[in-house]
Design brief:
single chain; 106 residues; alpha+beta; 2 helices
C-alpha cells in the first residue's frame, strides 16, 4: 500500500494577510509606515510553520523583497527552513525566488 507524500510550500506573505485588520494595524503601529512580511510553510492551504517577521517599505503593487532593503529577510527564511527540516521534511524543489521552496515528507 503506497501513500502520497505530504507536500509543503514556502510562501511569502504580509503579516495580517489572512486578516485584513491585522495588516492595517501592523502598518499603523510601525513608526515609518512599513509593512511586515514573513515566510509561511503551507500544507494543503493551511499554514504549519511561520517565521519571524521583517519590515519592508510599504509600496504600491507587489515587489519581491531583497535583504538590502528588507533587513532580517535572510535570517527569517533560515529560521523557517531550520524548523521545517528539523521536523523531517526534505527539500524537493526550488523556484526562482530564494523562498520558493518545496518540501516533501512521507
Amino acid at each position: 500500500m503506497s501513500t502520497e507524500p505530504e507536500t509543503l510550500r514556502v510562501e511569502l506573505e504580509e503579516v495580517g494577510a489572512r486578516h485584513w485588520w491585522a495588516s492595517v494595524w501592523a502598518t499603523l503601529a510601525s513608526q515609518s509606515g512599513n509593512a511586515y512580511m514573513r515566510f509561511v510553510g503551507v500544507v494543503d492551504g493551511c499554514p504549519r510553520y511561520v517565521s519571524s517577521t521583517f519590515p519592508v517599505p510599504r509600496m504600491w503593487g507587489t515587489v519581491a523583497p531583497g535583504e538590502e532593503w528588507a533587513p532580517g529577510m535572510t535570517a527569517s527564511l533560515a529560521e523557517l527552513r531550520r524548523s521545517i527540516e528539523d521536523d523531517g521534511w526534505r527539500r524537493s524543489g526550488r523556484g526562482p525566488q530564494p523562498w520558493s521552496l518545496t518540501y516533501q515528507r512521507p
